[in-house]
Amino acid sequence: MSQSESPNETSRWTPEDWRSLPTTQQPRYPDADALARVNATLRGLPPLVTSWEIERLRAQIADAAVGKRFLLQGGDCAERFDECSADSIASRLKILLQMSLVLAHAGRRRVIRVGRFAGQYAKPRSADMEMRDGVELPSYRGDNVNAPEFDVVARTPDPERMVTGHARSSLTLNFIRSLVDGGFADLHHPEYWDLDFVKHAPRASEYQRMVESIGEGLRFMESLAGVQIEDLTRVDFFTSHEALLLEYESALTRQVPHRVGWWNLSTHLPWIGLRTADPGGGHVAFMRGIRNPVAVKVGPSMSPEQVLDLAETLDPDQEPGRLTFIHRFGRDKVESGLPPILEAVSKSGRTPLWVCDPMHGNTKTVRPTEGTLAGSAVKTRSFDDVLGELEASFEVHRTAGTHLGGVHFELTGENVTECVGGARGLTDADLGYAYRSQVDPRLNYEQALEMAMAIARRMREGSSD
Ligand code: PEP
Ligand code: CO
Q1: Which long-range contacts does 208-215 make (Cβ < 8 Å, 24+ apart)?
Q2: What is the DSSP code (8-state) at residue 411?
Q3: Cα–Cα distance between 226 and 456 in angstroms, integer?
Q4: Are the CB atoms for 352 and 323 separated by under 8 Å?
Q5: Alpha carbon distance 211, 98 (integer Å)
Q6: CA-CA distance, 93 to 114, in Å (whole number)?
Q7: Is the Cβ–Cβ distance between 355 and 297 less than 8 Å?
Q8: Cα–Cα distance between 316 and 304 in angstroms, integer?
């Protein structure tokens, strides 16, 4: 099925259309009245972002699609309400800033920073129910839905959580905007972003050398120009999350004065996850009518025809910057799975932004034989698989004549031990030291910075275009 109406012909579209379509991965709320009350509350609350910001991001994505910018998207698999704190938010900004500095320096391209934050509170799950010791309860679906503790109260979906999620997103964004406005992200002061443990990291000296050389370049350019380069004193952060919980997303989708159409004002860049990318399903029907740039995950379960169908439905007019495909095949599958999709999309004449998520196709379960998690099943990812998929992706795009314009990571600015490998050589036995994720394993600060440096080397070799 493909729908080829243009946005001007979709005046009949409403943010509620998804309700009459098959829509998977939605919680079952036991109390319909409570849900209706929350819905009305959300509709009355102010939006989290504005259509101007969304338009600015769309223009930048259009640049990235043709190689003029590079997109860095990263953050937690799932944010937690109780991690909405100054330290946690600041360290997430710091690692994204450091990585973007490394990427901009190497790639000689401006970097668009997009956080998986200020709203990444809902998770798709492979099973609706979880069984432990003969007791069956609904799966944890993210803090916007329920809580991870294994008891009936915690696991029962509670619509009030969406109101809390909106408030936490707004607190997160407020702090980010204040930090950025106050000069935290000023490229003249990269020392603001140093994390306590940065000096002990295996790649710390390489990073420090890079910062010094950028600083020298900056001062040189400014002494020539005789002014401060304004563009570098302020950088933007955009927000993104998986648009999974359609009750929440549709309540925050609004019309705005002096602009045509509907805007999802819960985030700048909503994306459709792999499990909800059915071209005939509710999520795609919802996303096709909003004016935001939209992203879709693409993986081994999708045929080139499905990808083309998604492109036609979500971007019938081929608007620059509208569509991003985030591919996540896994190290073992990317070389065989990605080329037919790139070929089909190129043949159709489309130039979406292609982004590689090297995390979600590389998750595996291990049973450490030593350490505090010995004997239990632990989800992890190996640094080498993640880097391997990224490197293979650059190569596949080069061969296909397409352009890899961005990367998508699950990472944290903290010193967690959830992924194995990297310069410090974390092993399965080390996973127990600081394993905190309730869902997917994240690169820690050192691994994330090391990853950026590895991509940077790849970009410097000049073979990314
Ligand atoms: C995610 O990004 O956290 C996720 C669930 O990804 P995917 O839809 O690609 O599996
Ligand atoms: Co994840």
Answers
A1: 210/101, 210/102, 210/105, 211/101, 213/105, 214/101, 214/105, 214/187, 214/190, 215/188, 215/190
A2: B
A3: 30
A4: yes
A5: 9
A6: 10
A7: no
A8: 17
Distance between Cα 56 and ligand 1 center (Å) = 25
pLDDT digits (tens, 9 = 90+) for 209-245: 777 777 776 676 666 665 555 555 556 899 999 999 9
Contacts of 387 (CB under 8 A, 6+ apart): 358, 451, 454
Ligand 1 site-directed mutation target among 25, 123, 139, 274, most atoms within 8 Å of CB: 274
Element (H, E) at 306: helix 304-314
Task: State how beta strands 323-327 and 353-356 pair.
Answer: parallel
Q: Which of 123, 139, 144, 297 to mutate to test the pocket of ligand 1 (most atoms within 8 A of CB)?
A: 297
d(CA 185, CA 148): 34
What are the tens digits of pLDDT across the range 171-199?
999 999 998 888 777 777 777 777 665 66
Residue-range domain boundaries for the chain: 3-463
Helix axes 445-460, 86-107, angle to 10 degrees: 10
Q: Is the CB of 320 inside a 6 Å radius of any atom of ligand 1?
A: no
CATH level 3 topology of 3-463:
TIM Barrel (3.20.20)
Ligand 1 contact via 326 beta carbon (within 6 Å): no
CA angle centred on 377, ends 371 and 382, rounded to 5°: 75
